[in-house]
Amino acid sequence: MLMGDGALTPAISVLSAVQGIQSRSSKIEQKHVVMLTVVILLLLFLFQQLGTSKVSFSFSPIMLVWFASIAMIGLYNIIKYYPLVLKAVSPHYIYYYFARNGTAGWEQLGAIILCITGAEAMFADLGHFNKASIQVAFSTVVYPSLILAYSGQAAYLIKNPTDLSTAFYSSIPGPLFWPMFVVSTLAAIVASQSLISASFSIIRQSINLGCFPRATVRHTSDKYEGQVYCPEVNYLLMVLCILITVGFQGGPEIGHAFGVAVIWVMLITTALMTVVMVVIWEVRAPYAAAFFALYVAIEGVYMSSLMNKMAQGGWVPFAITAFFLVITLSWTYGRKKKSEYEAGHMISGDELAGIVAKSAARVPGVCFFFTDLMNGVPPIVRHYAAHTGCLRELLVFVTVRTLPVTSVLPEERFLVAAVDEVPAGVYRCVAQYGYMDKQDMEGDEFLESVVAALKDVAGGAAEAAMMDRARRSGVSVVIGRTILTASGAKLGWFRRFVINHMYRFLQKNFNSGVATLKMDHEKTLQVGNRYKIE
Predict the structure, then answer these.
(1) Distance CA 503, CA 462 (A)
(2) d(Cα 94, Cα 83) in Å, to the nearest integer?
(3) For residues 308 and 106, what is the distance between their CA atoms, to the nearest angstrom?
(4) Alpha-carbon span 317 to 12, nearest angstrom
(5) What is the mean pLDDT of residues 123-138?
(6) How far out from the chain centre does Cα 417 lie?
(7) Would you say which domain of life the source belongs to (predicted)?
(8) Alpha carbon distances (Å) from 194 to 52, 125, 160, 210
(9) Three-class SS of residue 257?
(10) What is the pTM for the complete model shown?
């Protein structure tokens, strides 16, 4: 749902800001607004590869000017048109509103939700800020400014009810129109940036949890780990934004779709927050239940109103959700079956010792065998040894980890140990990198560093001499490529379809586990193996 929000927020935010130019001239049609919106969206998404950190210094001034401007204009309209409008802040008018309007009032909640979504977009990617700064910003700047802005528009509409569809720009005093047009467009871009960055972040987190195929993740800041750029996600969101903008042509459908996406994000967030309260914060169950009941009651009323708009655009976020959900569930299920297979067919220390002993020859040199398993030896090694009939004199199983730090010190880069119950010459190595480190394994630097680390755990001078001899004899890199094949009636046709088609398609078309590693391809060997899942 957040990905749907990420596709809809830039479209509706920029479109709403740009539509103001129609009030300046009757010659400007909706198609011109749509074209200008598409151009701005294209520039916004193409700019993402430069990194948010390049322009983030300008975000705070833009938002401060935006909130100050809408607050002052709102205050001006309140004083000029209807000062008593501020009494609407009192909650008891909620009761009077529904008592007077009944079902019609409930239906209008679908439009009122758009007043909330604007604030939600401004605070979509909060991971870079501390608790106090968020509380101070919202309570002293955002919330008062929104109250004044919406109250001012309400006061204006009381005297000018025919301007309902253009309330924001119509309520701006004439001399301030163009400055506010520029500021509102910039604010829309900042709000869009927040959701785009949040989309990148949630994909990165899903990849780290193994819930999403490996996409390209580039860190754009050496200060904040969360500032990332995913080119595949960026261009997918760009296409979705443009299709939504052109498809709906700025009609009310895009507002319905946006409202549905946001309210479901809020509902899901409330559910997840309740889990955090109970599991992590250890809040007592009655208090967590009260929190859940209160917020679900409020959000549920809005959600029930918006679900009436499913045919008028509300289906869009569900379509986007279904697309990402199919990818996520297919990948998660496939990885689960692969992990179960490897755990059940893992090579034990005794078996590996037997494989090493039966090897026809120990060829001089070093072999780096890359694997995702940090404990145990994957079954693909059995396949490799059976078909090659020989092993290198120095065999190192390497697992690469990216840590949540900017950079890893060279002396902490490699964690090495000898494999138990196996003759000398077989080791395990965990290569650790920070998110800004270059994972470069070309040339001799990687080889020299690993061998130096191995010497620290060598059993004696003879073993160290063997390592030096192997290093001088050359290096080869082996990468495993597994293919899952599901068969047997036990799994059922649907699960077989997921593994044989969905998971294998994702595995083939997304990045592999070592895709981010820079290797010498002339020294690299890929070994394939088929895992039969029954």
Answers:
(1) 47
(2) 19
(3) 11
(4) 13
(5) 74
(6) 35
(7) Eukaryota
(8) 10, 6, 34, 24
(9) helix
(10) 0.81
